[in-house]
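Students often ask what a holo structure prediction actually looks like on paper. The answer is less mysterious than it sounds. You provide the chain, you provide the ligand, and the output is a string of discrete structure tokens encoding the 3D arrangement of the protein together with adenosine-5'-triphosphate.
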Amino acid sequence: MPSILIIDDEDNYLELCRRYMPEHSFLPPARNYRETAAALRRYAGQVDLVLLDVHFDIPDVELLPHDKQPLLARGGDPAKVFERLRRSQGLYILDQIRQSHPDLPVIVMTSRDDLPLEADAERLRAEDYTYLLADDYLDARALKLQIDGILAQRERHVAAASEPFYWGNSAAMIGLRRRLGILARGRLPVIIQGATGTGKSLVAREFIHPRSERAGPFVAVDLSTLPNDLMAAHLFGVVKGAYTGATSSREGVLARASGGTLFLDEIGNLGLELQKSLLLVLQEGAYRPIGATKELQTDIKLVVATNENLAAMVRAGRFREDLYMRLNPATAVTLPGLRERRDDFQELLEWFMRRVTGEAYNRDLLAQYAEQRDLPIPGPSDVLTVTVGRSIPPRGDARRMHVILHPSSFKLLQEFDWPGNFRQFEMTLSNLLTFTLVDLVDRPERIEPEDLGEAGRPDIIPILPRTVSDLLRPMTAPSVTEAPDDDIAIDGADLARLAIVLRPGESLNAVSCAVERQYLEHLYERCVGDLGKMGEILLNDAGAGRKIQLRMNQLGIKLRRLKRRGDA
Ligand SMILES: Nc1ncnc2c1ncn2[C@@H]1O[C@H](COP(=O)(O)OP(=O)(O)OP(=O)(O)O)[C@@H](O)[C@H]1O
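The corresponding structure tokens follow.
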């Protein structure tokens, strides 16, 4: 049951609320700022909403501000000064609440026509401003509407935060979510388009499948990684003896996904022959495993994803038009890339940053950091606050740590190109947090007091612009020019050639990791395992050895193996 704190010098609103809203729990009221501060401390983390009166008929000593000298020194009648303070006391209290509870929803109530005060309340981010009419029924109804509206919105927020896919609040994304919800429940196939890393697989698995209300499983096949000659067997299954090597019968994914959802990623890679077979599945629910004499039936919800323009493939004769038409192209949904989501970039950043604070590796570092600074170690379900901007959150709940993104860090991230979209974004934020925590744990002397906004605030984890640019730089401009093929002599001492084997359809991410892995291994050998020297070369920082080591771990490089190789 949500808990509501009423801050008022009289009991009439409390009685009204208790009578008309038995579904909510109203905490003992606070009559002035001192009692408010005590109540917020006593019920830390349990107050869902505050109802705050504006006018307080209380003794002079209880009035805010504590120091009234500057107001009295301006001259004028002291009685009038105190009267003015009484008439707007609620806003002084709100100002104080905002210092320690920037996000707590507050409804300001008044029985007077105080328009100028409404503007102040808005500036102090009051959720609502209510004029009461001294009519119990009407007043209770107005308050109930506002309270229920705010609490429902909070619940939606909490629910949205626990969704694995971040939709954001832009009209375009809300529209997209609605549309996908409708398509999920229908029987027709769904086409999801979008560049790499825009979340096509995630949407199919976590959004469409659960909403399709089908009892069967979700089965995904990435057609870009499946060799052509294995594709038919994988999709349709094989009967024993169908070809040499088919030593036993095997079910295909069409059988496994029956009753559920089949997700075909990179549908553009499906060969023309198999396209014909898939068409039969869509038309009649029928298919024939390789080597079988009889057709089998399946019942799947088909979701396909593509990075390519299927209509253009149809025009070029590479995709069957009849299959394309069956895939329901009129309702194809395109997931926008990160660059197209400038409007909600800040919320995206906060959401993904919160998510990476939950990764096991970062959790361990956070625990080390907390232990070092005598902070309570965050539990597995504790969510860290993430703040973008210059304002340092007030010291409040001691259990909280704050990840702060300096405005310049924000700008660097916002202006970056993000060709790998959310996949690249999430990895980068995870690295940013890891590198920042490693610096804080191992080399706190590198953090300047001004980075923390307030010296000695151990609960602040600042993401500094230099850490961001260090990480983005290698992804921005190629620092090495590709060697023209044969006509350059490889001088073993200074130049090296990296070679990677690419499978068709390899993702950008896999390619860049392969290159990075080789380069790091090469440099490790050149530096004879001196990670400090590598830090100097790669990040212009001889103290960044642990960062390099972490990155090598993340890329799956076994340092022990390299060391043994070096020793040999
Ligand atoms: N809107 C989003 N909210 C949360 N996470 C997202 C979102 N979009 C992408 N991701 C993250 O990005 C990663 C890549 O997502 P996913 O694999 O679904 O992309 P994709 O479009 O299918 O990429 P590809 O075309 O390369 O297969 C996922 O691990 C997911 O965590």
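Residues 136-162 form the longest helix (27 residues).
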